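Shape is hard to put into words, and the shape of a protein is harder than most. The fold becomes a row of whole numbers, each drawn from a learned catalogue of backbone shapes. The outcome of that step, for a single protein, is printed below.
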Amino acid sequence: MKVFPRWLVVCVTWIDYSLCLPLLAYLPRRWTRPLETLRGWINWRADFDWRTLSLGHGYIRAATERGMARVVQQTGRPASATELGQLTRQRFICTSREELDSWRLKRIDYARLPHHIAGLEHLLTARDQGVGVILAKAHSDSLYIGLALLARAGLTVNLMGTKVIFDPRVPPGIKKHYEQKAEALNYLLAPGKLVFIEDSISFFVKALRRGEIVVIASDGPSSSPDRATPVNFLGEQLLMSSGLEFLAHMTNSPIAFYECHEQDHQNFQLRISKPLYLKEGGLQQSYYEMEQSLKANPGRWWAADQYANYIRAASGPL
């Protein structure tokens, strides 16, 4: 295991998160693309990630390769070591781009940003009928820019966050990075907002009952083997994050899957699957949609390392 001394962590995070990223965010995105790629390549080689830097040891690269191998396996072919290395490197580059974009979220001219939202009609219809919708998402590609575009389309979007970033082991530079990201999202989503689940689960229940949208990261494992219904995901029966099922059950709200991918020349493609209620198989369908999305763009799944933490249901693999 690669161990990072604390002095190195503090130095790297200050230079990177407190100095370089904020300065680069003032430049046009097309100018910074080579630098984003270089930063991602360096982080891949050094196994630098905000979590590895906070904990003081590298593990993300190896865990990501394991997740990538599982995704590729679901396409019906084995993955070579070379391909897994390339996909893992792509993940670090994609993360680098997302982290830089988080500093320029408030500066983006969304009115002129080329984009298309497939399935927007589902959310607009639900809004007009006063029906709240739960959007499941993976930590993938340009999801935060996509949320800003959904809010600009006339939807009230609320994002569920977590206070893990306030762990005392997280260096100040990284903590500041996420604080400004939260500030930018609250500005862009207004009247929707980012709310930490540790602060108020009732906020999300009330938001859904008002007919608003609640966005939940759903590619993480369940916090307890007793809190989630098994779903078929990546060829296994897994106990995934229980937030989707809990809120859908509490509010009788349908579930849909949301993704946002940046194509060439800053063209953003968003997709919303058809919202389905629990009784219609909405929980399982959201994970089917997520799996298809990850199989199409595995190198953009910047939480692929989470696969190593997934809890297998008692029935085991399919």
